[in-house]
Each structure stands twice: as C-alpha cells, then as structure tokens.
Design goal:
The protein is mostly helical. It has helices at about 5-15, 25-50, 65-100, 115-120, 120-145, 150-165, 170-200, 215-220, 230-245, 255-260, 265-295, 295-320, 325-345, 345-380, 385, 390-395, 395-410, 415-430, 435-460, 475-495, 500-510; strands at about 55, 60-65. It has a two-stranded antiparallel sheet with strand order 1-2. Helix 6 (about 150-165) packs antiparallel against helix 7 (about 170-200) and helix 13 runs antiparallel to helix 14 (about 345-380).
Length: about 525
Amino acid sequence: MTLLLWTLLVPLATGVLAVLPGPRWLRELRLVAGLAVTFILSVATAGTFLGGGVPSAFGEALRVDGLSALVLVLSAFVGLMSGTYSVGYLRRNEERRRGPYMPRENERRAPRPSDQKRLVPPWRRREFDALVPLYVFAMLLVSVSNNLGILWIAVELTTLVSVFMVAFHNRDTSLEAAWKFLVLGSLGLAFALLGTVLLFASGRGLLGEGMSGLHWTRLMSLAHELHPFTLKLGVVFALIGYGTKAGLAPKHTWKPDAYREAPSPAGVLMAVGMLNGALYCLLRIHLIAKAALGPGFSGGLLLMLGLLSVAVATPFILIQWNLKRLLAYSSIEHVGIMAVGLGLGGEAATFGALLHMTYHTFAKPLAFFSAGTLAQLHRSSDFDDIGSGSLGRTPVASALFVVAAVMMTGSPPFGMFFSEMTILRAGFLGPHVVAVPFFLACLVLLFCGFFYQVGRLVLGEQPDSSARTPDPEKFDAGTATTILAAVLAVVSAFYLPPGLLELIRAAVRVVEGGP
C-alpha cells in the first residue's frame, strides 16, 4: 500500500475507532495520536513530491502535485491542532455538566429543568471524536483528488460532517444554523456538480469514457480542444458552487451562524480546512479555464468575487456584536484577499495569495482557540455578555486573542502583512487602476473595524459587580494548545521551514504553468 493511501486511511480509521468504548484518556490519546500520525504521513507524502516523485493511486484518480502537497500539509496541520484543542475544550464542557447549571454559550433564554441534561454528555464526546478525523479525511481527499468527480464527492463529505458539527450542541439556534448551512451548502454543491458535468461535456467526446475522462490532468492536456461556450458555463457554475463552500460573497451567508454555533475546534476546521479545500477546487477550475480561454475570464470572476467579499465583510465587522461572528466575517475577508491575489494573476500575486493561505492557516487556529476559551469562560460569545475589560478578568485568553487579532489584521511584522503587501504591490504594477485602490481602502477599514471591536472587548472599564463573573482560567490541554498555536503563528512570521517555502513555490508553478 502506498504512502498516499496510508495518509488517507489513518484519519479514516481514527474516526471509526472513536466510537469504541473506553476510558476518556484512551479516547483522547487515540484521537491525538491518529491525527499526529496523519500529519507526519502528510509531510512525508509532500517530501516524496519534493524529492522528485509523483505520489498517486487508482490510476492517477488521486495524485499529488505542488498545489496538492501544500494543501495536504496545511489541512493535516489544522486537523492536528483542532483535535488537540478539543481535548481541553470538551473536558470543560463535561465539568460544566457536573456543576450547577448556568446559561450556556450563545444562550439568552431562561434555563429549563432539562438544561442540565442538554450539556454535552460523554456519548456526544465520542461522536465529536469521530467527526474530527472524518473531516480531516475529507479535507485530505479533496487535496489529493485529481479526478473532478472524486473532488466533488470529497467536498460533499465535508458538508455532511460539518452539519453534525454545527448542530453538536443541540440548541435551537444550532439546529437552525446547521439547517441553513445544509441548504446553502447543498445548493452550492448542486451548482458545482452541474459545472463538473458541463466541463466534461465541453470535451465533446474527446475525454473518453470512464473515470479518466474527469481527470484534471486530462482536461488540462486537452484544454485547447474544449468547446469554449460550454466550458464557460461550466466554469461559472463551478465557481459559484465551490465559491459557496469557500464563503465568497454573495454566497457567504451561512458562515456567521455556523461559526457561532459550532464548537470552536470544529469552527477552525471549517474556517481553515474548508476554506483551503474550496480554494483548491476553485484553483483547479481556474487553471482549466486559464489553459483553454486565457487568464482573463476566470481570473476576472475571481477578482470580482474577491473584491465583493472584502467589501461585504467591511461593514459587518464594524457593527458586529458576537465574537465568533466577528471571526466569520474575518474569514470572508481573508478568502476575498486570496481570491483577489489569484484573480490579479502573475507569479507575484499568486505567490502572495498562496503565502496568505499559509499564514492564515497558522493564525486562524489561535484566533478560534482563544475566542472559544473566552466564550466558554464567560458562557457566551456575545460582546454584551462578555463585557468590556476582559483582559482584567481572563488575562491569558484575552492576551492570546489580542495577539491573534494583530496577526489577522495584517499588522507588521507578522506574516499576513507581507502576503497582503505582495498582492498589493503586484496589483499596483498591473492594469487594475480602480480595483487595487478599492481593495486597499477596504483593508484599511477592516483593520480599523477589527481593532475597534477587539479594543472594546479586551480593554475598557470593568463591568459592575452585578455582571456575571467568568469561570476561572486554568492551565489545561486547551490552554496549552492555544499557547502552542500562538508560538507557531509568531515564529512562522519570521521563519518558514525551507520545505514549506518550496511547497509554496511548487504550488505557484502549478498555478502559473511554470516548470
């Protein structure tokens, strides 16, 4: 069995084994160990590619190139971080179940007698321990899919697992958010499926029959023979469909509710893993269109959707009232930044977009973990319930969230500042004399809006004595993982491993068609 198949089978087996009974420490060890082995195997698979090999399986239905290897490693990394943080996160939930009832996170109604039972029980813990590695398996399958049909199935699997994650707390608002996500996600996937069918139809019989007819490499080799009009229709439908999964405006409306209701370990999987996977799908479609029609058609669509996403995120960040919804609009902003870089085209802008994806993968776990800890300690993620001056009541979680905010806003000297500057420099050197200044203006407003929200939450006067007192902070697995995420995010700003930098350059070569 090849290394690539082992990389996929380990998280799948970890998810299956999670339903087995056993002591809590054994289930936690099994989860973290399985995800750690998955990360090691993903790095080894990427190393095989960097060493000159082309890992593949099932007649190249699964295949690793530079873009695949980069997304594979980033997906495995965020899966390991999410699974490790979930150990402390769910232990806190179990402790709250044993203690006296207090209103839960995101809840404003009066308590009911049944509420104590509705806090996460141990059997739901096993369900979550299964969902995390299954989601990681789906993310990895997306990243190595050379076949557009398998790619669609893998994205559909992420949708199904995400629905259960969003509905995990079994609140009315959770079920509503999960249903909304299911409807919008399924609609997007229907568009993506139609786009895939049209891409195949554009081959006019040249692609052959069987699975190989939907191989991305085959479509690329016959790109100049594809029917232009049918291809354009397929590209539009596919970009709409996979853009929905990425959260590109105007198909972003599922994100705020889903991020608010999902447990924080699941939220970071959706905010990073799903975003990277959907962007990978968009890139594969963009490259087919670029080879057949030139860069202008799909590149212009990506640029338009990216600018719209950044513009839409701006006012909602300025008026936001909930911590996790704030991170949702931040994700919409960042996927917009990546889409703008890819839409601008050229080696520099593409490098900036993929570098931004990498730095976003390092920074977003810190933001979600620290925000999730704040929400758990205050039993709510609403700004009004947390109150101002959280730094004085929960100093560790608040300080870590400030560090995350500095990174997420693209402040120097952290990584996303350099990736954004790379995209802006490439844009100003190009012909987009209106789009790039508009993009820059939105980034400035987003910077001010995000820090306004963080400042009024973390700083400010302490609430009066009648306000709810947060649970005391303590050092546990969740706190340790958050600190580790902070260290990795800070270090990445000043040092990226040479292998990771080479993966980014290899991904740029795939996108730009270089050697």
